[in-house]
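Deliverable D5.2: sample structural annotation.
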Amino acid sequence: MRDVQSRDVTSFITLLTDYGLEDGFVAACHGVIAGIAPEARVIDVCHLVPPGDVRRGAAILSQTIPYLPAGVHIGAVDPGAGTSRRAVAVTAGARVFVGPDNGLLSWAVRAAGGAAAAYEIRDEAHFLRPVSPTFPGRDVFAPVAARLALGLDPAELGPQVPLDRLVTLPEPTSLMRDGAVEGEVVSVDRFGNTQLSIAVGDLRALGVRVGDNLGVWMGRRQLTLPYRETFAAVPPGELVAFADSAGLIAIGVNCGDAAQRLGLPPGAHVRVSPSR
């Protein structure tokens, strides 16, 4: 691939995992990359994805990718490690995404303009040896990413995978209906802010502006929430709806935890309308 081969040793590699920070797992991945491509710059996207939470990892990566430089992007949230699930490298423009074929990469690939090609990572000549079945991030994804950053053609990693055979997560959706917009909980961040699939433009289309109130239906519950620029615009302990940094509507609590208060898991249905 020409866009990959044109990179040099100043390429960027980004790393998103659920490895946490209590152990040496992240450092081991950094060390493997440094041993192969010592001048590549590594950006840590996140290592506190809840263990095995592919959807949360996908949300973080997809919402961060517009602000990351072109390069190689490792995703290692991999509850199927050691099973028959594929490891893949997916090209999208000037980016290559490396990780398990479990949907983790799918939203970020779409955010990067869509997949151009995908390859199963199978050639063990590019792996760290021996390969631990429980740590592909260190032994497979990290060394492969480092070699891609040095110019390795992704086609050399293994057979091409038809794009329609890649595992994808269902995209969060929103639907305008009967003077309201219906969506779902996309993710919950470490502050307890509950991010919805409802965009700022959806509320604008309903005639809602900052300063108005929203009617929010969550199953059998109905709330009236102030729609403000930030959670700090309401008194401590109060619920508030606001536009988050991804341009999506979120529900938060000033100095509190909205997820804990509301008990809304990712995927939960939410309906929002103007509250007159």
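Annotation notes: The first helix runs from residue 2 to 5. The chain has two domains: 2-165, 175-274.
The annotation will be released with the project's public dataset once the embargo ends.
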